[in-house]
Design brief:
442 residues; alpha+beta; eight-stranded antiparallel β-sheet; five-stranded parallel β-sheet; 26% strand; globular; ligase; BC-like_N; biotin
Length: 442
């Protein structure tokens, strides 16, 4: 087992990784920005190093500063969490070049899956179904129009180097495509340093379903189970559940087999997620992307499998042979508690004057904040993940309702009122919903 671990992240995921590492007897080191010095994850680690000011480019995405922190503290390994440098192939290579263990997939797999066009083409070659779309970047608006005419409107305009729901827009006709192509390309150049654009078929009614995979140290790739991620705003997830209410046993078998094939195609190691779009009317699904890291929503998989995915990550990175449990029990739901307006979902940072977490049977809270801390505008608005598990979906929903009612936050704005509304929504309760559910509620 790794003896010392540096967590190159912040907030709830840094706290989450530290918790498991310390349980395994691993010495923990965290890095933090000046703005985050007072957050719980900093106090809970064995050692903490400030790596720069609030600006992520100068702190959490500052690879040189993080590597320097690892060397100065004697860290043996680096866990990147999610976001920031977690899917940066060059950083993964630099970690290993400095004699450290990278707790994640190999840099080649990260690079292969980091470009959406390259990923689509690789998956198609491996026999993984992909939605109709371009095989090469659309370099000009005329090329995008030609592709859209061939594919058929409406189309999704995507930043090839994007992720996390960023750099995406829908175009229903040529006029809209001209506008959105320019916007997406400009956004991609600013955010990712790569203006490559992918044109893909847009499905007006679709579900977002993903499969958790583990690439084991012995070379095998296993699929655990699927998660439903269709409750979204601006293509970013708000609530996830496992299992998906839209997936039958037969469809689940096909999804999991496809996810294993996707992982094997790139020699995948460690934890990852194969994301798919599911047509609920036909049962067809298409590869969307592969996230080469631990997902925000990993706890719902943990709860139905009785597994600690961070522990599995550390054991795989240590070269240990693991045999993850594939059988599942119950139903789990995760709600992303964000510092944002519950109606328009606009950020609402502030000083936390009240923070009372719910408790009870089947309730888990992974939080990054506490009373007396401050949610700043510099980072993602995620404050905590409220996770519940029940014997079945109905019990999980009931526990989620009670937990939302018992979660008290004052200071920053929060979206708990939205979740209270969602958990009473007939469409959601039926299980027959899609990625448009939030817009229909507004």
């Amino acid at each position: 087992m790794i003896e010392s671990l540096l967590v190159a992240n912040r907030g709830e995921i840094a706290r989450r990784v530290v918790r498991t590492a310390r349980r395994l007897g691993v010495r923990t080191i965290v890095v933090h920005s000046e703005a985050d010095a007072g957050l719980p994850f900093v106090a809970e680690a064995d050692e903490a190093v400030c790596v720069g000011p609030a600006n992520p480019a100068q702190s959490y995405r500052n690879a040189d500063a993080i590597l320097a922190a690892a060397k100065s503290t004697g860290a043996q390994a680096i866990h990147p969490g999610y976001g920031f440098l977690s899917e940066n192939a060059e950083f993964a290579r630099a970690v290993e070049a400095n004699g450290l263990i990278w707790v994640g997939p190999g840099a080649d797999a990260i690079a292969a899956m980091g470009d959406k066009i390259n990923a689509r083409n690789l998956m198609a070659e491996a026999g993984v179904p992909v939605a109709p779309g371009t095989h090469d970047p659309a370099d000009t608006v005329d090329a995008a129009i030609e592709a859209a005419t061939r594919i058929g409107y409406p189309v999704m305009v995507k930043a090839a180097a994007g992720g996390g729901g960023m750099g995406m827009a829908v175009a229903g006709d040529e006029a809209a495509l001209r506008t959105e192509f320019t916007k997406v390309r400009g956004f991609a150049e600013r955010m990712f340093g790569d203006g490559s654009v992918l044109i893909e078929r847009y499905f007006p009614r679709v579900r977002h379903v993903e499969v958790q995979i583990l690439g084991l140290a012995d070379g095998r790739v296993v699929a655990l189970s699927e998660r439903e991620c269709s409750v979204q705003r601006r293509n970013q997830k708000l609530l996830e559940e496992a299992h998906s209410p839209a997936v039958s046993p037969e469809l689940r078998e096909r999804l999991l087999a496809t996810a294993v094939r996707a992982g094997e195609a790139v020699g995948y190691r460690n934890a990852g997620t194969v994301e798919c779009l599911l047509d609920p009317t036909t049962g067809e699904f298409f590869f969307l992307e592969m996230n080469t890291r631990l997902q925000v929503e990993h706890p719902i998989t943990e709860l139905i499998h009785g597994i600690d995915l961070v522990e599995e990550q550390l054991r795989i990175a240590s070269g240990e042979t693991v045999d993850p449990p594939l059988r599942t029990t119950g139903h789990a739901i995760e709600l992303r508690v964000n510092a944002e307006d519950p109606k328009r979902f606009l950020p609402g940072p502030g000083n936390v004057t009240t923070w009372v977490e719910p408790s009870g049977e089947g309730v888990r809270v992974d939080s990054g904040y506490a009373e007396g801390t401050t949610v700043t505008p510099h980072y993602d608005p995620l404050m905590a993940k409220l996770i519940v598990v029940g014997a079945d979906r109905a019990e999980a929903v009931e526990r989620a309702r009670a937990a939302v009612a018992g979660f008290r936050i004052a200071g920053p704005k929060n979206n708990l009122p939205f979740f209270a509304e969602l958990l009473e929504n007939d469409e959601f309760l039926s299980g027959d919903y899609d990625t448009g559910i939030v817009s229909r509620m507004r």
